Amino acid sequence: MLDSELVRLGKDERTTSQAPLGNENAVFDLKVSFYDLQQGAVLSWTERHVGDYDMNGLVNASDLTPLAQRWKYTIDYLPETESGVPWWPDGNPRDGGLSGVINGKPGFNTPADQWRTARVDGDGNGEINLADVTPIALHWQQNLDSWRVYRRAPGEEGFTLLQPEPGLGYSLPRSAQFPQGQGGPDNNWVYRMLFPDLDVGPGNYHYYVAPFDSTTGTEGATSPVVQIEFPVVNEPPPPPPGNEPPEVVLNADTAIGNVPTTVNFDATGSFDPDGQITLYLWDWEGDGVADFSSSNAPQASHEYTRYGRYKPRLTVWDDNGASASAQLEVYITLFVNGREPADIDLQADVVEGRRPLQVHFTAEMDLKGNNQNDYIFEWDLNGDGERDSKNKPLPDGVHYTYEHAGSYTARLSAGDGYGLYSESYLAIKVLPNTDPLAVIESDVTGGGVPLTVNFSAAGSSDPDGDALSYAWDMDGDGEFELDTGSDPTALHEFVFIGEYQPAVRVTDEYGAVAVNSLAISVSTPVNQDPVAFISADPPTWSAPKTVTFSGEGSYDPDTGSGVNLVYSFDFDNDGIFDQSSINKEASWYFEQPGTYPVKLVVEDYQGGAGEAAYQLVLTENSPPDIVMTASVTEGSFPLQVDFDCSQSTDPEGDDFQLEWDFDYYSPGNFVEGGLTGSHVYETGGYHRCRVRATDYWGQSSEEEIEISCTGSGWYLSFVDDAKVPYQGESVDLEVINGKPAICYGQRGGNPLTASVRYCSAIDVHGLRWRSPRMVSDLGEGVGSAVSLIDDNGLARISWQDAYDGIFTCRALDPQGLAWGSIRQFLDYFLEYPQGTSLSIVNGNPALAFVTDAEQLAFVRANDSNGVSWADHIQLGTISKNFVDNHQMRLLSLGGLPCLGFIGDSGSSSTVLWRKASDANGASWQNSKVVGQAASGVRGLGMVIIDGNPLLAYYSDVGLVCQISLDDGETWELPAVVTDVLAESGSRPSEVCMIDYGGVPALLDQYMQLWVAGDTYGVGWSGPEAIPTVEPADAFDLCIVDGNPAVAFQQDKLFFAIKLP
């Protein structure tokens, strides 16, 4: 029968394997649960593999045996309207009845037996019969040996494959839940999978799973997406109905020892009353955070390398999604050279309550014969890793207020004089509590002195229904001097003239507060109304037009001047003031012609007001119609183009004036001209000539023509209208995913603000560019000091913010249109951003930067995508005497990070080279002196060619280049590129060096190109000037499709490439 079905369906018995396909193979009962968010979430599902009746993972002839064993068995399926699929069996898949508990095998026709029979019902018709042979043939050789789990976390646009290690290709091997000592699932029960996701937090998560065949790399049908909202406060969902949670029994082979000590944990005594334990999550320190998952293995080992006392915790999950947790009954105590750790027990007067939760922390301690003064105490009370207090636990301890709802792990650390620490943890649960709503009203809002005002906050409320208390700040100084308890009313007399902002503070019974205020004006008993005057400039014009109105001449009879008045303008006669301020002038845009009555009301601080009106007449007018032609629109450069606008007209016959902007590479200012114009385009690329016509009434229109210039030489492209930042100037040009891309800073409207931006080219030569993307707004505190690399086909940038420290971010797509979350390495203030440098080291992104303590630092990611990073390593002081010249370059040599940078040597500065001993930069060789300059080294470029590092810099003899032929141990004498010296005060981006077809090439301080005669950096030719439209403070050099290319920035950002 099977052979005939294979023939009928055209299946070749020799078909190679692939993952299970088709909707019928999609998992239908995926569920996400958690015990404690710090221990992660657990996904559970029933394996769905149509045709694989014997559950060996492969659909083949052996699947006929289970079909014969369960011949004519029937299954009760849930209605499809209830379950969503027609093949969802009724009941609990682990409910095997009494037989399931006693014999480990479900009783006949129990829900668990029905689930196992449903695995053999390939056609899903509810009966095991001859028709179930066809699914074997349909899914012949479909193989399932692992599972893929996909997750979309809060803030992420797409799903990510969760992998135990990068490049593995799957999330969970199918064998993960095989019973101990067995090569496959227990054939008496339907096979269920569990997968832990240890990296979750509060928020909305989405998951789905898919079967995977690792032998062919094929993925099967995906399950429906399951969504779960992880709460801010740990409130795990109840266990599945009808499923008893497992019992945890945890033992350890030792509880005492010197560090390092390996402890072997054994949970084989744990059991599940109505199923089997299939997942073990281990928390080695007992801090509530799961550190390791051993799948279904009940034994695990951990090496403790840190002195202290620990109480490990184990959380187990059964195969139907129920969980349980328990801690080791005794502490694991680790000594150092026989020195016993302090025994501390963190305690609190309250561990659960509604926000804001005030907690008083103390501790019981056995300091092993010492006293508190022998220890350094550190309190981290909100679990953010930052120290909140250094107080001693006794006698006062620490008071801390939790302002936000959530689950927290408080930690107390005690360190002795030998640098050995003991820790204790305590869970704090802060429940939600909504702030009250404060409402303040008064019977009057102003009057003559003395003024008695009755205040009421009776309209205040609390969304949670809590009782409220009231305090009052009558003079608006921020001090609430009057407490009326539960009475929402207060009485106050104002005895001095002035403007007051009395406020009420409403507090609920848990301490949540809300504040609201109102204005009270206390004036002299008699006040004269101000006198208003209004004028307009221009008095008559055409629409559309922005007209400026003035209240000049208005005055207050009480003071005899126009100061201390509020000017309110109603431009559209709707009775509502459109602009109101102490400014006498206001502007308004009128789009349509017509007559507009404009009103000005002038008000003094005591409520007196005067008004004046103005009748504005705007005539109807249309802008000129521009007709623009060019003698030629494309050709080889230099290209002369003659432009003609002589056919332009004005609809009303008005005279008009023309202004020309022949090339948008120029500063972009229109220059007054006639009806014709001419321009010679000297560089390749796409140029744009614009003309603007303005008539007598001020109406303008614009027209433009694009000119395409081709030929051999430099092509210049405009990228962004972005000014170089006030400080921290830098531009980084790289090839990302085969096309040029630029990372740079943009100065804000306030010179002391800036943002970090990114732009990628549309074509391989960078002749056209996409719209820029802002990656980070630095706000107050200038800086950028950017660096850019290709991180596995996606852009990664780093930058330095003068106020907030060091950051990196990676694009989510090859074009850099969307960006991932920003990673911050340090949080500090640095007056002058000194630069960052990114590189790929042994497959992972790495970063060098300067800290606020003038320290050179290095950090490398733990993975190739830069999701997780190690702690940064400080490498020593850099260039103290030349604080404005912190320049470093990070590259990878033989898979190891290496740094070129500028250091100090008395009153002069030196060029230094330093290489790490391992890829993570945990250990570094001593710095090697490359060169020195008494007047100070300026600029630093670095490149590695044929495995040899080269450095270029400005010395006392000019711009020089040096090479090392032994991995930086020794350096050859410097070769002089040019004897022209650097200008003092030049910028850090003044020297850029690259590998140009196997020989070094560089840009000097004056943005001139030099090329070496050989790979060793001698015999330089040049300089070749780069075509620019303005001097540049920031620039970078790169090879794009084999051609030299430059990005440079001053008031705008440009890109230039030399094409053959």
Please, could you describe this protein's structure?
This protein has 1060 residues and is mostly beta strands. About 0% of the residues have low confidence. The chain is built from six helices and 80 strands. It folds into seven domains: 229 residues, Immunoglobulins (Immunoglobulin-like); 85 residues, Immunoglobulin-like, CATH 2.60.40; 89 residues, Sandwich (Immunoglobulin-like), CATH 2.60.40.10; 83 residues, Immunoglobulin-like, CATH 2.60.40.10; 86 residues, Immunoglobulins (Immunoglobulin-like); 83 residues, Immunoglobulins (Immunoglobulin-like, Sandwich), CATH 2.60.40.10; 249 residues, Neuraminidase (6 Propeller), CATH 2.120.10. The radius of gyration is 38 Å and the shape is globular. The two termini are 70 Å apart. It is 4% helix and 44% strand. Strands 3, 4, 5, 7, 8 and 9 form a six-stranded antiparallel beta sheet that branches.
